[in-house]
Write a structure and sequence with these properties.
- The protein is α+β, with helices and mostly antiparallel strands and about 130 residues long.
- The protein contains three helices and seven strands, in the order H-H-E-E-E-E-E-E-E-H.
- The chain has helices at about 10-35, 40-50, 120-125; strands spanning about 55, 60-65, 70-75, 80, 95-100, 105-110, 110-120.
- The N and C termini lie far apart (about 60 Å).
């Protein structure tokens, strides 16, 4: 039969402190970031898209089943999930350029600028 180990009170306090302090600090950091975030969902989305870079000729277009069946374009192993509103605008062989710090995506078909798509058009109808 196993003997029950009884820890002294000071050891218990030290154990609880070392286990729960990092957990409490993490929770407080997350809450602080969430409560102090003043940007709207559309601003967060546009900031994310400003950082995104994509350039190349579309090799593949497919639906990503594990990501809400979103349509994705791929060029040289570079992936770009498409907003729902733009899903039918792209064809294999089109060229796409999205530069950093830009909110526009340029779509070229047969070497000619076919359309300029703006991410601001995606978020203009969002309710934040």
């Amino acid at each position: 039969m196993k003997e029950k180990v009884i820890l002294p009170r000071k050891v218990k306090i030290i154990l609880y402190f070392t286990i729960f302090t990092p957990l409490i600090i993490m929770i407080l950091m997350v809450l602080f970031n969430v409560l102090n975030e003043n940007r709207t969902n559309s601003e967060l989305y546009l900031d994310y898209k400003k950082e995104f870079v994509f350039a190349g000729k579309i090799d593949t277009i497919y639906h990503e089943i594990h990501n809400h069946n979103i349509k994705v374009i791929e060029s040289n192993k570079q992936r770009h999930p498409l907003p729902f509103e733009w899903e039918n605008k792209f064809k294999v062989g089109d060229s796409v350029i999205k530069q950093k710090d830009s909110l526009t995506l340029k779509l070229y078909r047969n070497g000619i600028l076919f359309e300029v798509l703006d991410y601001r058009d995606i978020v203009k109808d969002w309710r934040d």
